[in-house]
Automatic annotation (TrEMBL):
One GO CC term on file: cytosol
Entry's family note: Belongs to the class-I aminoacyl-tRNA synthetase family.
UniProtKB keywords: Aminoacyl-tRNA synthetase, ATP-binding, Ligase, Nucleotide-binding, Protein biosynthesis
Protein name according to UniProt: Methionine--tRNA ligase
High-level lineage: Bacteria, Pseudomonadati, Pseudomonadota, Gammaproteobacteria, Enterobacterales
Organism, scientific name: Pantoea rodasii
Amino acid sequence: MIIAPPPTPNGDLHVGHMAGPYLAGDIHARYLRSKGRPVNYATGTDDSQTYVVTSALKAGMSPAELCLKSSNEIKRTLDNWGVELEGYAPFDEGYRKAVIKFLQPLFDNQKLKMKSVKLPYSELRNEFMVESYVSGECPVCLAQSRGGLCEGCGHPNNFDQLKNPMSTMPPYENLVYKEVDIMVFPVEDYREKLLNYYADKKGVWRPHILQLMDELFSHKLIDFPVTYPVTWGIPSPFPGTEGQVLNAWVEGMPASMYCNACGVSSDLEFDYEWLSSTGNKLAYFLGFDNSYFWGVTHLSLLMAHDGKYILPDYIVPNEFYELENSKFSTSRGHLIWANDLIKELPRDYARFYLCLTSPENNRSNFSRAAMEKILTERLIEPWNALVKAYSAHTWRQSVGVTGNEVGSEVKIMRERLYDCCELQSFSQSRLADWIISHIARLEKMISAGSGLNPHTVNSQISVLLEGLGIVMIDLVENITEATGHEGGIMFCLKQMPALSSLGRAENYVP
């Protein structure tokens, strides 16, 4: 079971999104499928986010119109990039019912509490301003932050924690804090379960998320708002919260369950694939800025169901992917839309470059100049040299070849390939580097060797294609086998087109 957090449908996906969880999840899912292991990779769209409202206001359309438009664009982009999903959930009545079914037992068992809190309030608009409606200084790192969570340090800032809150919507005034009764989920009640859960993750998971958990657990865990007194979102069904909506972030787990349910053909309940009794394994691929929600609040909500549901075996976070050494920004127009990039060059090249430069443990950078140089000098030209050497080589007979003659190289190649793709050591960047390394090595071996045995080379070419096929899906799809010298199988390898020969194919279809 693989989940990439549903993106907010306030626009299409840009290259920064693709370099994060969506391509990473696809790489891991393709690897599992290649091993014959059952996979359910799913996502959807997060329509209840207040960012839809603020973006729709700027775009001059209704939030519902923006959701519909963006959801279609996001699905098209994922398809065009070759992100193969089992499930892509619509934001429909089934989705809304799933959210309520997940939360209702928690309410019935008094695990959700009413609480009087202070929230940012606009006296001019006469309404509460939460999440994307408010901006201020993070109480932990003092960076500018929207309500709910600081993207910079990853810490939450619920209720009245933001310093100097200001409205992000007209008339952009300074806000006051006003008291209101809402429903909350007391995350601190699950401290011991959370600590036990993370006890065996050190040295296994990526370090930044574990560092964040240490920081969070060093203080009392703040309550998580289940409802908000705003109008955009799923109406709250709980007594005492009339006129309020569910916090979009509380939808995370039932939404993910519904996404996975859309990936199977059955009439089973929306949460069946997540039941502990199934024995299924679960992994999240997500941006680091989502770590608090997915690694604390969502996890606690699963735990609150008292063992009914599986918990994630791995959370694989990524850092920010920058564009020309500055953060991707839709508001500033500092971005490259994901679909635009694959109008300029084949999606295989885009997938490969984003894998190689993936921001796995540190921020990394997208640069057009670097992309063209790396693709040309480290991928396209070496691969074409390998194809030329392979096609021109005079092969000797296969007689006398033993398993030991090729077994050690193949074993070493496969072990490293699988290490790059398994969750405990997952790295799409190392996978891309593995591809580069073996293209160069095999080209050198074939060019230098005289009368190499085809079995010696083809067994290694086969493993190389196995790894290439996870990233460069169109190239490998077009490689065929043919009967060669001495009746052995030879590969009909295809050359990669040079970037200079592509131009800008505005209507490029993968």
